[in-house]
């Protein structure tokens, strides 16, 4: 059966956020806004502080790799330093490296992945706002290497660089999710963490594998050898919503991408299991806040 996360990445239209680096020394601090994207950073040399809204400062050292999900943040030599606007320093096209101070004792490389408009929340809401990936983790080394390759593509401007950057963005997202699942967080309900549960992973694969089928709780429970009540409770606890609610949301995310590619409302409605366009339009508006024809 298909890997549901691979299907999600394909449907969401992963986009690369260009590779960048920061070389800094002395007293410095840069603030960055929150956007609908995943942001990655690796400390290649020295140490610094990460400051998130309503959280105590996090000390970062050489070898640390971090994931940030749709949040404002500041990186600084010390928490008390007043930050400057980091976005402005990287605003110019091709300006991928920023140097602060004369003696650069701290070096960070960064990059990220964005998603097609309106689709990113399906992944972003399932990941923590901040995740530190341990230096000894296999994902940490892979992410650092991928970030370096992403920056190299951004700097070099070689033939096919845009395509390479898109594929590197996919790798970043996959490695981040692997690290997140490996940490097995119990206090953060999401469909991604539920993939670590064999029965719930099978339920998600079943729904993704036959998106147009009129699934019922009874049919799903029978497939995985659970009672309807046990499946509903377990799925709701681990995913944060009941199985059929999750299915509706996934159908509408998939439908958004199909509509954006020019397919008709009638075709897409049938593909996601609706026999009438009105029923599909109602579900679409309830889930996304817009109408199918506006996409």
Query: CATH-wise, what's the superfamily of the largest domain?
Result: Regulatory protein AraC
**What is the share of helical residues?**
40-55%
Helix count, DSSP H or I runs of 4 or more residues: 12
Structural class: alpha+beta
Query: What do the pLDDT scores average to?
Result: 85
Distance between the first and last residues' Cα: 30 Å
CATH architecture of the largest domain: Sandwich
Number of domains: 2
Order of helices and strands: HEEEEEEEEHEEHEHHHHHHHHH
Q: What is the strand and helix layout of this fold?
A:
Elements: H1 4-12, E1 15-24, E2 29-32, E3 37-45, E4 47-51, E5 58-61, E6 65-69, E7 73-76, E8 84-85, H2 86-89, E9 97-100, E10 106-114, H3 121-124, E11 130-133, H4 138-156, H5 161-183, H6 191-194, H7 198-209, H8 217-224, H9 228-239, H10 243-260, H11 265-271, H12 277-288
Parallel strand pairs: 1-9, 2-8
Antiparallel strand pairs: 1-10, 2-7, 3-6, 3-10, 4-5, 4-7, 6-11
Helix pairs in contact: 4-5, 7-8, 8-9, 10-12
Describe the protein in words.
- The chain is globular.
- The mean pLDDT is about 85.
- The chain contains 12 helices and 11 strands.
- With about 300 residues, the protein is of the alpha+beta class.
- The protein has helices at about 5-10, 85-90, 120-125, 140-155, 160-185, 190-195, 200-210, 215-225, 230-240, 245-260, 265-270, 275-290, and strands at about 15-25, 30, 35-45, 45-50, 60, 65-70, 75, 85, 95-100, 105-115, 130-135.
């Amino acid at each position: 059966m298909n890997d549901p996360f691979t299907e999600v990445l394909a449907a969401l239209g992963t986009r690369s956020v260009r590779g960048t680096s920061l070389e800094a020394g002395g007293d410095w601090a840069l603030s960055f806004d929150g956007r609908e994207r995943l942001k990655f950073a690796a400390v290649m040399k020295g140490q610094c502080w990460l400051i998130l809204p309503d959280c105590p400062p996090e000390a970062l050292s050489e070898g640390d790799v971090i994931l940030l999900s749709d949040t404002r943040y500041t990186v600084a030599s010390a928490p008390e330093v007043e930050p400057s606007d980091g976005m402005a320093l990287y605003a110019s096209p091709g300006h991928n490296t920023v140097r602060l101070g004369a003696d650069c004792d701290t070096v960070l490389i960064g990059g990220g992945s964005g998603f097609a408009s309106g689709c990113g929340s399906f992944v972003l809401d399932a990941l923590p706002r901040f995740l530190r990936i341990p230096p000894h983790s296999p994902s940490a080394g892979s992410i650092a290497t991928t970030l370096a390759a992403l920056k190299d593509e951004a700097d070099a401007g070689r033939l096919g660089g845009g395509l390479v950057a898109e594929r590197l963005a996919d790798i970043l997202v996959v490695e981040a999710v692997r690290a997140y699942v490996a940490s097995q967080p119990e206090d953060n309900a999401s469909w991604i963490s539920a993939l670590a549960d064999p029965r719930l992973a099978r339920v998600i694969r079943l729904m993704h594998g036959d998106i147009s089928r009129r699934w019922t709780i009874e049919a799903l429970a029978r497939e995985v050898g659970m009672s309807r009540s046990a499946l509903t409770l377990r799925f709701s606890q681990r995913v944060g919503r009941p199985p059929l609610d999750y299915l509706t949301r996934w159908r509408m995310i998939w439908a958004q991408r199909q509509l954006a590619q020019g397919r008709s409302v009638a075709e897409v409605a049938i593909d996601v299991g609706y026999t009438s366009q009105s029923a599909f339009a109602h579900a679409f508006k309830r889930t996304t806040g817009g109408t199918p024809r506006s996409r």
